[in-house]
Amino acid sequence: MKVLVCGGAGYIGSNMTELLARRGHKPVVLDNLSKGHQAAIKNAEFVQGDFGDFDFAVNVLKKYKIEAVMHFAAFIEVGESVDQPLRYYENNVSRTRTLLAAMEAAGVRKFVFSSTAAVYGMPEQIPITEDTPKSPINPYGETKWAVERMCHFQSQTGRLRYAALRYFNACGAGFNATLGEDHEPESHLIPLIIYTAMGKRDNIKIFGMDYPTPDGTCVRDYIHVEDLARAHLLALAKLDEKTELVYNLGNGKGYSVRQVIDCVRKVSGREFKVLEVARRAGDPPVLTADASKAKKELGWKTDYPELEKIVESAWKFHTANPKGYGSK
Ligand code: UDP
Questions:
Q1: How far apart are the first and last CA of the chain?
Q2: Separation of 187 CA from ligand 1 center, angstroms?
Q3: Chain segment 246-281, per-residue pLDDT in tens
Q4: Residue that finishes a domain, picked among 233, 249, 265
Q5: Which of 63, 138, 250, 311 sees the fewest Cβ atoms within 10 Å?
């Protein structure tokens, strides 16, 4: 299948592109390289440009005879979304609306969308199922939820078939640790701990020690990026039968910030400085997925259920690429 991967030069998008290519599909990456890295695109055609430019997007969809779109291009910083909500609505919602309009104009029906556990906000019920009330607590989560609703209504017209995939904490490096995380700025826990273990940072800060969790630090559900990519492929195939799909993607097992730090210590064999600081605004104590729906309906299985294997892959990527993709 000819698949347009918007944001295919980014972290999750590049892993998706590689998987599509290895499974015999023809991925075409559309990325403006504002955040992504051209070096992360290995086995795909690359078009540099803006998915939110209607005429351009229609042209790309037609020129490459695209049959499905996977959409990873979004701003992802919660704190930044609070400071600059309009930028987030513009990029994550308005431009995605234009992309959907371009798909409609070009007659492309299938859409797989990167959503997030942030649509649930501070859920009362753990683990989180797809039916847990949607109540985002920041503009980032709101913009993802807004796109899900837009897709829902567009699918009701019969002109769109879509899957919204709600990721928990994406992490690790895919394809023999060649495709990893390289964000600027980096805010995610696992790469930040690894940078500290590598001596690129002076310390790692634990945001809050007084949460109602076994060791007082926040618990999250870490899911390997290659496992995520495989769920997208299964969801895409399922769109032959269904018009509307929504799945949580996580391992269903939580690890605390302390446990993640201990795991990096073990995998790296390095000691480093850990500081205990105040809570970060907006962090729920525990977020873990009930992903049984994706397992049952898609036959999805995770290859990296253990944190140690995830951290090993990330450690391998970062130590092989100490300056990220700029190392090459
Ligand atoms: N965290 C932390 N120190 C950091 C970065 C993150 O203690 O330098 C914590 C954060 O408060 C959260 C967990 O690690 O509980 C995962 O954070 P991340 O930003 O990676 O993902 P999120 O869960 O916010 O999507």
A1: 31
A2: 7
A3: 999 999 999 999 999 999 999 999 999 999 999 998
A4: 249
A5: 63
